[in-house]
Automatic annotation (TrEMBL):
<dbReference type="InterPro" id="IPR025246">
    <property type="entry name" value="IS30-like_HTH"/>
</dbReference>
<dbReference type="Pfam" id="PF13936">
    <property type="entry name" value="HTH_38"/>
</dbReference>
<feature type="domain" description="Transposase IS30-like HTH">
    <location>
        <begin position="4"/>
        <end position="42"/>
    </location>
</feature>
<dbReference type="InterPro" id="IPR009057">
    <property type="entry name" value="Homeodomain-like_sf"/>
</dbReference>
<feature type="region of interest" description="Disordered">
    <location>
        <begin position="32"/>
        <end position="54"/>
    </location>
</feature>
<protein>
    <recommendedName>
        <fullName>Transposase IS30-like HTH domain-containing protein</fullName>
    </recommendedName>
</protein>
Amino acid sequence: MPRSYHHLGHADRATIMLMHAEGHSLRAIAERLKRSPSTVSRRGATPYQSRPAL
């Protein structure tokens, strides 16, 4: 049976960003959003991590 995939909404991404900034673990964020930790790490925190200036 195929898996069902869903994108994170803006509210979930905002929650991930806020909780990440507050120092919560990926596991704690995932539990709060009822998502897997791998989803949070792949889709949530990565785009918001600071990158060095060019």
